[in-house]
Amino acid sequence: MRLLRSGLEREEVEARKRDLIPALFSRIPTGVGSHGAYDLNAREEDEVYSRGAQWAVSKGMGLHEDLQHIEENGCFPNAEPSEVSDRAKKRGRPQLGTLGSGNHFLEIQYVEEIYDDPAANQIGLFKNQVVVLIHTGSRGFGHQICDDSIQAMLRASQKYGIQLADRQLCCAPIRSAEGQSYLQAMACGVNYAFANRQLITHGVREVFREFFDKSEKDIALSVVYDVCHNIAKMERHKVGSVEKEYCVHRKGATRAFAPGHPKVPQDYRKIGQPVLIPGDMGRYSYVLVGTEGAMGEAFGSTCHGAGRQMSRTKAKQVARGRNIEHELEGRGVVAHSATRAGLAEEISEAYKDVADVVDVVHRAGLSRKVARLRPMAVIKG
Q1: What is the C-alpha radius of gyration for the chain, rounded to an integer number of angstroms?
Q2: How is residue 72 annotated by DSSP?
Q3: What amino acid positions are annotated as catalytic residues?
Q4: 253-288 per-position pLDDT tens digit
């Protein structure tokens, strides 16, 4: 997830959104099989896998200050391109700088509600401010790394005598050759995702500059934060009275480090790490901050999103015969999608109400509410 804050207000963008959203859709390739505009040689590809968003910024597609507001400063350590299969590289090659399909999206939103004024001020959010929320990852590159690794882990589970309740729980000892190989390949996938969101950010900035007769400083589009929600990483945590290193797996979960943590950007350290929790395209998303409760109870983690309550197949059945674009327009949301099926799979009722989920993690002390964001326009794959 990545959130960009702008210097624009809702009224300025509302009048242009019907033209703005197709321009963004044209600039940012979207959906299954979409191809980006970046033709890299093998050495440059390895740089992407090794350096992530730092590679994109070094090529002029971003600002140095962007990196300060990305998890791991936009470059996940220990990446080793030689551990990635040729098939994964082939799948990822044409997709860099693309949005993808499924529940991936780019939304133009506005800040509808502020719950914590000091935290919102520190993050740079104000009421009726326009923001852009981006949800996409490592595309087919990361998917193939996963597929390849599952096969390796199934063999490793047998090799190390690990009994599996389910084949999808296949695994290997972290310090084993198989475990280290996976972590090095996974790090390449993380860096690809960081670079991908950075390139999309670059495209969003270009389109906004074309549409709004304002200085770049006034448009702004600064990175609030960029954080992962499908990752395993080595972190130090205290369990009981003992602090030690753990391999923390966050699958459908997001990091939520507390105030004062050295991994939180300096300008957010007093309030805690920003947490981005998206909702469905017809309702709202949330910005929260991490807490001590998350550190003590959940290895510095909170939820990623609302979660589906309806399969994609069921959602398409429920949406059959309906005009989803028209329904969204009734809620003030302009939608642009690569396919009608893509919109049908993502109807609001396919998801739990994210407000209920956010209230739970807020009351549980796993993260603290800062702001609610309401969608104005959305791109779906």
Answers
A1: 20
A2: G
A3: 304
A4: 999 999 999 999 999 999 999 999 999 988 999 999
